[in-house]
Design goal:
The chain is mostly helical and 142 residues long. It has 4 helices and no strands.
Length: 142
């Protein structure tokens, strides 16, 4: 039998794990984005052959825009308990999943972090659902 207390605990633990994960991903994406932009990560140039890119500059910028910013905004929304936090967390998790899928499709190379980040994207969505069970996802609903 599920009690209100256990549901409340699950919600608190889920939200804390969600925020922690979002912050870790946002920080990692900022590190990765700037590392790509400044070419300090040592990414292989030949991985860009067959892509629309001639350097890692734009992929770095896109990493910041598509992953770092949504994760940071979602984490902030969760911390401040904003009415749009659920939608932002779902969107941030979906953006991370999409980022990895696009990497595989565009670059066509395998990097060991990709499956991990794909799983984390799905985990963000799951934790958002657990933290907000019963709430509408609509960011305009109060």
């Amino acid at each position: 039998m599920t009690t209100a207390t256990s549901n409340s605990r699950t919600t608190r633990v889920s939200r804390a794990a969600l925020v922690a994960l979002q912050i870790i991903v946002a920080v990692a994406a900022v590190f990765g984005g700037f590392g790509l932009i400044t070419d300090t990560l040592g990414m292989q140039q030949d991985w860009l052959s067959g892509t629309p890119f001639t350097s890692w500059l734009w992929p770095g910028i896109f990493l910041l825009i598509v992953v770092a910013v949504p994760m940071a905004v979602a984490a902030l929304g969760e911390l401040l308990r904003r009415h749009w936090a659920y939608a932002a967390s779902i969107a941030a998790g979906a953006a991370l999943v999409g980022w990895i899928v696009v990497q595989w499709l565009v670059i066509g190379k395998y990097f060991f972090l990709q499956p991990t980040m794909l799983a984390i994207g799905f985990l963000v969505v799951l934790l958002a659902w657990l933290a907000h069970r019963g709430e509408p996802v609509n960011p305009f609903h109060r």
